[in-house]
Amino acid sequence: xxxAKLVVRNITRRRGRFIFTLAGIAIGIASFVxxxxxxxxxxxxxxxxxxxxxxxxxxxxxxxxxYEQVSILTGExxxxxxxxxxxxxxxxxxxxxxxxxLTEKTAINNRPVPVMGxxxxxxxxxxxxxxxxxxxxxxxxxPGAVIGAVTARQFGLQPGSTVTVRGERLPVxxxxxxxxxxDDLTIFLPLAVAQKLFKSGNLxxxxxxxxxxxxxxxxxxxxxxxxxxxxxxxxxxxxxSVLSIVGTVNVTLxxxxxxxxxxxxxxxxxxxxxxxxxxxxxxxxxxxLGARNSTIFxxxxxxxAGYGVLGGIAGVVGGLMFSAFAAPxxxxxxxxxxxKGSDVAGIFDVKVMAGSILFSAIVAILxxxxxxxxxxxxxxxEAISYE
Length: 387
Known about the structure:
By secondary structure, the chain is an alpha+beta fold. The protein has helices at 3-12, 15-53, 66-74, 84-91, 120-127, 149-155, 191-197, 217-227, 235-278, 280-288, 293-326, 337-340, 350-376, 380-384; strands at 57-60, 82-83, 96-108, 111-118, 131-134, 145-147, 162-165, 168-176, 187-190, 203-204, 206-211, 231-234. A hairpin with a 2-residue loop joins strand 7 (162-165) and strand 8 (168-176).
């Protein structure tokens, strides 16, 4: 019998012990893979949304924190505190294009949907929107809605359908072409209509700004701050701040998952020590047949590695399945809303899968070093005389 067959026979001889030891490391690796996969998907989606925003600068309330910046990228509801008078002063600055946005929420079939009030013509030029079906707004205050492609598909809406926003039935004018960003999930209303329905007066949530000369971004930030008493953040600053917060949370979750993998490693140590005790006579027979201590050591280390590889594979499969299942349902707050709209295919990262299996194998091998050493140092007489 060769070494591989001997290893397989030994780790599966106690079915119950084999299953529970394997389950321990599989659960730990599954947790690790889940957080790693969703974290990677989250970062990719943040970068995509920052690009889709189409703004070089964002004007926000002076006291706004990172949470408000995240809400801007995700389309979450944001308090309206910026007046249209302040918007007019920003728009009067030469060398930039500024569009005000009012972000709110509504529900369709008891499911929350983002609503954004915009200046129709200005926003279409700003983002370069194209209509996939129907038509666009004909006037700045036309009662009606233009909706994102994903929302239209989810709720079976098309031009001529109606949506109810704050008790008001509005006709669907058109459906935007799919862009891959949060616009696909949003209902757009003329700003005047949105302000009336949500009773926000002449207030908006933020102002998106595009500058003519990117080399002068810092100068435009200073000029806007001198013109109005509001906060201004560049798209790169906002991206860096959001990624920093999300990265810290993601690392914390991965460390928690790593602790569960460490706990599983102690399970492997216990299993292998028990196997060493139970198989003393077998070890003695191998020594009597000429097996060297290094051979005994290698056999036990291979058994431990087997737990790591098999547990790692099971954990990766389980973690990816959970990630794919959970991603569409994660969106209860601004920090996780990115994953909700992200491409599930992006979760299946070959590097994550290979790295997780390798990590599992290394942890298992390290856990098996001491039991393997204990097995290898048994004297032939002590081992073969064991009953």
